[in-house]
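ARCHIVE RECORD
Type: protein–small molecule complex
Small molecule: adenine
Source of inputs: curated submission
Record status: active
Notes field left blank by submitter.
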Amino acid sequence: MRLDVVTIFPEYLEPLNVSLVGKARARGRLDVRIHDLREWTHDKHNTVDDTPYGGGPGMVMKPEPWGEALDAVIESGTGDDKPVIVVPTPSGRPFTQALAVELSEKPWLVFTPARYEGIDRRVIEEYGDRADVREVSIGDYVLAGGEAPVLVMVEAIARLLPGVLGNAESHRDDSFAPGAMADLLEGPVYTKPPEWRGRGIPDVLLSGHHGKIARWRRDEAFRRTVANRPDLIERADPAVFDKKDREM
Ligand code: ADE
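STRUCTURE (tokenized, with ligand):
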């Protein structure tokens, strides 16, 4: 997968060199290219923002540098490939595990993290016919810029790429993963030692009984979901619940 990021803070994306994403790059699974938006400015102050039409607080990112930057990035493709342009903004559609899965199947993503009050709207319209443009929000809060959301989205996407996670099964039971437990959060996990500060391990996990362990994990997932995300229970397919859940 090819990943381009156009930003005024290239150094903000340095975490893409470490851990899982860094390894995916080193293994050639991810071709990450970070671009400095200011390279496409032509005045001596490298201006990327200006005051908003209609008045109001803050500054808006100017369309010209974004236009030149995106033209250059798109033209560096083979010509017949159209990228998905992901525009992080608190006004976008929610970033979900389903969207992470969808984006992980695309050959080429271009992220356009903005600062200030966002990018001049005409840029979003301009690229609508040359690319698949998605405005995406990582949550109902406002950050100072889109770079942290890019790190979040790239990590969620990269770990889904084939050959990136050591064990292909490790995302099978993720919270929000499709499947039998699709509507439930992942339950608690334990490792050695068997006793720590007087606290033991639930007996069932030491029983070796796979059926009972699966049932216990499912019940714990249900309990946690009720406690932390009752909204997920409301939305869930009633077919995933059984009589025991209703008694809990
Ligand atoms: N930029 C600022 N806040 C954001 C958010 N919540 N999601 C995506 N991009 C953002």
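CURATOR ANNOTATION: Residues 88-90, 137-139, 141-143, 146, 149 surround adenine (CB under 6 Å).
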